[in-house]
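Margin note: ligand = 2-acetamido-2-deoxy-beta-D-glucopyranose.
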Amino acid sequence: MAVKSQSPLVITVIVGLLALGVGLVIGYLLRPFKEPPAPHTSADQLWGIEAADDDKIAALDMLKDCSHLARENAVISKHLLENDVEACRAVTCDIPYPRTYVIYKLRGNDVIDLDGRLEDKAWKDVAWSDSFIDIQGREFPEPRLKTKVKMRYDYRFLYIGALLEEPDVWSNVTLHDGPVYQDNSFQILFDSRQSNVNYKEITINARGIVADLMMTKPYVDSGEPLQFWESDLVSEVYVHGSLNNPNSEDEYWTIEMAVPFSTLYQGSGASMNRSTPIHDETWRANFLRAQWSVKKRGTHYEKEKNSGTDWWGLIQFQDAEINSTHFMTSEKWVATNALLDTYSALQAFHAVTGRYTDRKELLHLPPYVFSGKCVDDISIKLDWSGFHVTVKPKGGNLEDGHIKADHFLWFGKEDMQYF
Ligand SMILES: *[C@@H]1O[C@H](CO)[C@@H](O)[C@H](O)[C@H]1NC(C)=O
Ligand SMILES: *[C@@H]1O[C@H](CO)[C@@H](O)[C@H](O)[C@H]1NC(C)=O
Ligand SMILES: *[C@@H]1O[C@H](CO)[C@@H](O)[C@H](O)[C@H]1NC(C)=O
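Resulting structure:
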């Protein structure tokens, strides 16, 4: 009897596992790689997936002082059994930040002489970023060759300085907008509005050849790379050693770039009419290094064998005394996460049922989204394009946030266009 009544369950579980398997395979095939990954290549990035352990420790610390609060709240307390960390977060609204870097504005008569060397006082005055980590995550071994960056800005340009340790500096691509990522290269990604649309990718090799493009959307959302976008940057590379000479041991190469804000803001929201960042403005960014294994063959280097990221850190512009400030947090961060989490829940619902829904209770939303403590209100409207989610941030001095089924996220008027 017991066996009989369990068999539909067993079949459901098997079908479920098979569906999960197929889902994993499809997910694997659709993952955001530009190029099929081949052996003997490595890629490092500044900001990557954090080790799960850090998260767990932070979560346990948080639990110590908030579970009584969660218990007092009727809407949230029923989530305590299911997921105490999420229930707690619904009261504390403590949504973890990714890694960050504060960019200080140039002061007085500070100048950056674009010669590829990072010797200007303006560079010496500011801290390096962390060293890059393996693109597969923090639990993978630290890259053998260090990479780190610094940034400054003035009213027209974002300045980026990078240092890449490298015993064998080589570079083959010589054409602007050519396949620069097929060389050992340094890449920057900027999403100036944290909007997921029209973010910028600039890649440079040791010859100083640049490929710049605008991604209409992330690769996972079948975004397209628009090669015609031009960053109009000024850049210079310095090689400490000798380029394309396997008979000499090199030490490093450094890069200096000045990228105009006017091009970095392009296409990220029509009414976003700005050509210079305001104090505390925060962008999503990441920095990557593609590294190919090469063999030394006589007078040239030969390649034995790149990848993309959908991981972002945050950079913040500050017009303040160097080192006198920290990264400033904002209610916008919680609202942005509430939008992204609702987006994911709607897409997950769609994957199972083939449709979207405007009924929040049917979605697997983390409780901070609807606890009323972290955002004032969140609403879902269904429309011809799929859905339109609107969030009212806490505090009342921020504009409403929105996200649509195509992943476009913005704060401001309901009918914003990104071109
Ligand atoms: C700011 O901090 C960095 C890193 O600690 C240090 O190297 C730099 O000298 C400091 N700058 C100033 C102006 O104090
Ligand atoms: C955008 O900026 C230009 C030039 O500064 C100005 O003329 C125009 O009115 C602005 N548009 C909006 C929508 O703010
Ligand atoms: C660079 O190009 C040369 C000439 O085509 C080729 O022989 C060499 O293998 C290339 N180097 C790498 C590392 O791909």
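Residues 271, 273 surround 2-acetamido-2-deoxy-beta-D-glucopyranose (ligand 2) (CB under 6 Å).
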